[in-house]
Write a structure and sequence with these properties.
10 helices; 6-stranded parallel sheet; about 15% strand; single chain
């Protein structure tokens, strides 16, 4: 029986080296390549035609989601299994919509990783328990409305610690308008105050803190 051909896509050399070492000890696996960016992953998927691509999400240039979409549209026989540290609602949904067959977090036990790779190669969907829980929670959420561009702008400034008056001055709108946007945001996120709104938006991946 031919070994499963695996391509590792991650921009951290130490992570790639660790995965190569881990997978090389498992009978039936063959690591055929290592990509350090999304674009490189697409190019290597074309050249090597692996059975499974272990895909990180945040990489320079083309990110993992875009690379997943490109690989799945061009080479549908190649399965993409996301392996990342990011578990926000937005990241998960975007990756699955792009065509990823599974979504695992990097703290997954090695035996679970092995099983997930086998399952992915055979077309079976795989989700880490925390990821599955987040998806179920999202589906059961009473509000599925997305924030408008202006609501996101206001919430981003709230996250930076600005007062309503400062936000109004920054966006050149009235303080009353700021309060209205915040009330709409609270309703959509199912919260009652500014701190909770920022916390929930960060957890869901709607908002990102600038590094």
């Amino acid at each position: 029986m031919n070994p499963l051909r695996i391509l590792i896509a991650d921009d951290h050399p130490i992570v790639r080296a660790g995965l190569v070492g881990l997978l090389s000890t498992q009978e039936g696996f063959q690591v055929v390549g290592e990509a350090s960016s999304g674009l490189e992953a697409v190019q290597m998927a074309d050249a090597l035609r692996p059975n499974v691509v272990l895909m990180d999400l945040r990489m320079p240039g083309m990110d993992g989601t875009a690379a997943t979409r490109a690989i799945r549209s061009r080479f549908p026989e190649v399965q993409v299994l996301v392996l990342t540290t990011y578990d926000t609602d937005t990241e998960i949904v975007r990756a699955i919509e792009a065509g990823a067959i599974g979504y695992l977090l990097k703290d997954v036990p090695r035996e679970e990783l092995y099983k997930a790779i086998y399952a992915s190669a055979h077309g079976e969907s795989v989700l880490s328990p925390p990821v599955a829980a987040r998806l179920l929670g999202r589906m059961r959420s009473p509000s599925d409305e997305s924030l408008s561009t202006r609501e996101l702008e206001v919430l981003s400034l709230v996250a930076k610690g600005l007062s309503n008056k400062e936000i109004a001055r920054e966006l050149k709108i009235s303080e009353a308008t700021v309060k209205t946007h915040l009330l709409h945001t609270f309703g959509k996120l199912g919260v009652d105050d500014r701190t909770a709104a920022v916390t929930v938006a960060l957890e869901r991946g709607i908002l990102r803190l600038e590094s």
